[in-house]
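Work Package 3 (structural annotation) set out to generate three-dimensional models for the target panel prioritized at the project kickoff. During this period the team completed the workflow that converts sequence records into discrete structure tokens, so that structures can be stored uniformly alongside our sequence database. As a representative example, we reproduce one entry of 439 residues exactly as it appears in the project archive.
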Amino acid sequence: MLVRKIIPLFVTAVLLIGSTGCSDKVKEAEKQKVNDHKIELKLYTQNQDVLTSAALVKYNESHKDSSIKVTSFEDYEQFRNRLTTELMSGQGPDIIMDMGNSFVSSFNSIYKTMESGVLEDLNGLIASDKSFNMADYNEKVMECGVYKGKRYFVPLSFRADIMTTTKDIMKKNGIKIDTENWTWNDLTQVAREYNPKVKDRARYLFAGWMIRVEQLLKNSGVDFVDFENKKTSFNSPEFIDMLKTFKRDINRAICPENELGYTGDDLLTYDVAVMINNIGAINGGPFEAYRLSARSLGQGTDFVAFPTYSAKKSVQVIEPVTVSINAKSIYKKEAFEYIKLLLSEELQQRRDDFYQIIIPVNKKVYEDSKKQAALSKGVDKEQVDKIDRIINRAERYEVWDYEVYMILLEHINQFVSGGKSPEQIAKSLDREVTDYMNQ
């Protein structure tokens, strides 16, 4: 894979740049040159959204001495390459905004980028800003931007996987599980009992957005990669068992995405599936998704957490929208002012306008959206509280590294296609990810 060959060169280059950075006096001299003019900060992002635009307007209107210019990239590969090239040369934007995916996609490796020193440790800016209170935000989610004690990015919002069903559908299919705390053993049993009942493949146990093996692994609660200590646990009984279970029992129960004749709640209404994964991809977040589902499915609407490998939910891999500051920026304080705008109540409420921005990290905005949903017609407050518990059930939150994700995906595809055994996949994946982390 070409990107894997580029990574060591990138990390070496940025480390060299970091060791030969400008002195504080030089930075101040550069800043002094523009003191008589309006400072212009640069921001790079993918597919500029409503929040970015609103924050940009508000910042530019309220700051007489500085403004922000946005460069938006529609192509992810172009975005990564441009960002990498500029950071390697000690340049790049002042602010980097990542619009969220299955990983932090601004960098080929978010963890190696954090290790390289090209991103500013935001802890210093937070400590010196008396107006910033970490308690105003979801602190467990905010910690996903901390690596080896330094805070390299701030998550603005995130997405959580929650499946939708109805109590009648679950009863009709004889499925009795703890919908908040079921495990892979429960999942295996349910799939084994359900699959023989289906004589054709027009009906499935699961359907909807992103029901794949990597999504199940991401929600399993098992910490497969420890970047800080350069350790992996793919070659483990847990991972091998999950692969075997998926291929033997679970894969047959999932509706292939290319066979979906319906979307959203229609998959339940027309008896295509028992559970659908759509709540994590609906505009306005899970509480708004519930309000909409209650209209079409009625008061029996119910929600199901993704199963964990064991009863303990130790870690949750999330898909956040993130923002970071270039360590070489001479306008760090101004950049942090923009970050505070992005986290503000006023602008976090506007997350509903872009489909990737689901759950805000601002506590008040989150709580307000929960209260509004509970007051909606046809909505059961107990179900609102259940969604809240599922979202917040993990002990800690992490993000996936793009390159590790691509290595995982490559091996998963080999496994699903029948090319290798679970044991072979586990050994190969463990070795390749370990080698990659130690490059």
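Confidence is low (pLDDT under 50) at residues 1-22, 352-357.
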